[in-house]
Fold this protein.
Amino acid sequence: MPDFEEIYQTYFADVYRYILALSRDAHTAEEVTQETFFRALASIDQFRGDCQLRVWLCQIARNQYLSLCRERKHRGELEQEPGDDGLECDFADRDAAKRLHRLLHDLPEPYKEVFSLRTFGELPFAQIGELFGKTESWARVTYFRARQKLKEGFDGPAGP
């Protein structure tokens, strides 16, 4: 097993991008990634090698992120929307973005997570498949189905 500093240097960016794709917030991604490596250091002796080290770290990161979400929900913290900066010309784009985010939010799993990992996290299909314990082909098909569902929803009538 390589030393932990080498593990940190090798996998930090992968774990960070994964959590950034899930959270869409750089501060949260940084916080969760740091906590992930702290927890991994404390339990590295429990790593059995059943999967790649990157996958194990991403599993820890996902659990940390979900715990943070539950904790924030329990405390009643709501993300505040940024204030209106008065630029009326951006409203159309904001409406389109809001519609797409709503459609993505309503997308069932695993489509939502696969689409987010590929689009926001910029992970290759092979890594996405690995995270789910599936093949690269499965990740590709799931991503394109998610994309099709979003396109159909976006081309349909505008929601409230």
Observations:
- Residues 78-92 have pLDDT under 50 and may be disordered.
- Helices lie at 4-23, 26-42, 53-75, 91-106, 111-119, 125-132, 136-155.
- The longest helix spans residues 53-75.
